[in-house]
Fold this sequence. Notes:
The protein is built from four helices and no strands. It is an all-alpha fold. Helix 1 runs antiparallel to helix 2 and helix 2 crosses helix 4. The longest helix is centred in the N-terminal third of the chain and has 45 residues, at 18-62. The relative contact order is 0.11. The model has no long low-confidence stretch (mean pLDDT 83).
Amino acid sequence: MESGATGIPGTGPRRPPVRRRWAAIAGGVALAVLLLALVAGVLSARRVLSWGLRRITARVMTALPADLPAARREELRRRLDCVVAEAEAGRADERRLGELARACSEAAAAGRVSPQALDRIEMLAGALCASSGGTLPN
């Protein structure tokens, strides 16, 4: 005699309870949502990076010495704009972007960009723009 054919309740083939099925479905949906959020986060990381670069470079531009010649100020702005554009396009080296961002943060934190910090920022921005294949905007 088969175990399911005895007529005794509870001895037939077992089906998972309804709660377990719904829990499995809910878990699968939650996993799919988390994976979608992860993918969206990775794709938006470039936006966050470029937003942060724009903010810190704007702070550097406002902290430049008042007596800095307009031509040098404009050249720095062009270099920084190039770096931001290359970062948005995903062509800039992240390690070098971090180095530039740290230099900009340190200079802006002081409230006034020193000549040494200005030279370093100009050099980093120019090198990063060139190595990324960018061209300086006019």
